[in-house]
Write a structure and sequence with these properties.
This protein is of the alpha/beta class and about 280 residues long. About 30% of the residues lie in helices and about 20% in strands. The strands form three sheets. The protein has a six-stranded mixed β-sheet, with no helix packed on it. A six-stranded mixed β-sheet has the order 4-5-7-9-11-10, with no helix packed on it. A hairpin with a 4-residue loop joins strand 12 (about 245-255) and strand 13. Helix 2 packs parallel to helix 3 (about 70-85). The model has no long low-confidence stretch (mean pLDDT about 95).
Length: about 280
């Protein structure tokens, strides 16, 4: 699995209503901060590398935009289009909180179109949560992003999604289960990050801790990290491909029943990513 996240394509306000909803905060943030932190060429390099050395699965855990506007999705989709067209490479995408940023109808429609296009029309936003398989793995694909207030970036795992995940995990496990969502289930600094954390995740986190879910793949935090046991079970945050210049490589060894993880970092002097400890 190659896991990437949080590329954050941005741009100006695209309509006058943006000055009366949360988008004005995001546009201001992009104009004076994110624009200088996120290098979109790194996403293009990652796509080219994936096409040259195809993995068994590509997972993108959201925030491909900064404020979820149609123009931002168009820019992100232009970069991702070669990967979308490479139908021999399985691809899973879930939206992040910056993709589902506001309730504005044009923004929501652009988000839903991007979810369906990147997932090659196999499923759309309204089909989440869903369960599917890929190779040796069972995938639980969820949405935990929704628009929030001006000063928060928190997410919510709604009761129906939790119920479905609990129901799926109650049955016999014939292959490792991998949960795919934007927010981490394991909050590294819950008190400090109360405005950025995931709420309603308690039951699903217990499933991860109990081993009913083997691996959680997430984004949201721009710095990559991983909480894994000796068998590679736990949670991996890919970090931001365009800010931290890295993606995650996860390998499942079926005979030994272990996952191995390493961070692949893009460096200015390297045409391809190289392993990082």
């Amino acid at each position: 699995i190659i896991h990437l996240s949080d590329s954050h394509a941005g741009g100006p306000a695209e309509d006058w209503q943006a000055y009366f909803d949360k988008r004005w905060v995001g546009v201001f943030n992009y104009r004076f901060r994110r624009k200088f932190q996120h290098d979109q060429s790194l996403l293009a390099r990652a796509v080219a590398w994936l096409l040259a050395d195809p993995p068994d699965l590509v997972v993108c855990t959201g925030d491909i935009t900064s404020t979820g506007q149609p123009g931002e999705f168009a820019a992100a989709l232009t970069v991702l289009e070669p990967l979308i067209q490479a139908t021999t490479i399985p691809l899973i995408f879930v939206p992040g909180n910056h993709d589902y940023y506001v309730h504005h109808p044009r923004c929501v429609a652009a988000m839903k179109d991007a979810v369906r296009r990147i997932n090659r029309n196999r499923f759309g936003f309204d089909d989440l949560p869903l369960r599917c398989t890929s190779g040796e793995l069972e995938l639980l694909v969820i949405n935990n992003s929704r628009p929030s207030n001006l000063l928060a970036s928190w997410g919510f795992l709604d009761p129906e999604t939790s119920r479905k995940v609990v129901e799926w995990c109650a049955g016999p496990k014939t292959r490792p289960r991998v949960l795919i969502g934007h927010y981490p289930l394991i909050e590294r600094h819950p008190l400090l990050r109360f405005r950025h954390r995931l709420y309603g995740q308690r039951e699903v986190r217990r499933l991860l801790e109990a081993g009913a879910i083997d691996l959680s793949l997430c984004g949201h935090q721009h710095r990559p990290d991983a909480f894994l046991d000796h068998r590679g079970r736990g949670e991996i945050c890919a970090g931001s491909i365009t800010r931290s210049a890295c993606l995650a490589e996860i390998v499942y060894d079926r005979p030994q029943d272990i996952f191995s993880y390493r961070r692949l970092a893009f460096c200015d002097d390297q045409p391809h990513p190289r392993p990082q400890s």
